[in-house]
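During the no-cost extension, the postdoctoral fellow (Dr. R.K.) reprocessed legacy sequence entries with the updated structure-token encoder. One reprocessed record is reproduced below for audit purposes.
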Amino acid sequence: MNNEFKYEEAVREIEQIVAKMESNTTDIDAMAEQLKRAQELIKLCKDKLTKTDEEIKKVLEF
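Re-encoded structure tokens follow.
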């Protein structure tokens, strides 16, 4: 993902991956790749939320 990472897009992609896993329409190798992708997206989302939280706290300190 590039610097223009969009939280909402990542969440939608995670939801799509989860739906594929729940429907059992993906073979095990593809599922492993999808799981890795979901983990990457979750980390990006968590990092973005943490950064945003820190920025809000800085603003509120003034």
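The helical segments are 7-23, 28-61. The mean pLDDT is 89. The remaining legacy entries will be reprocessed before the final report is submitted.
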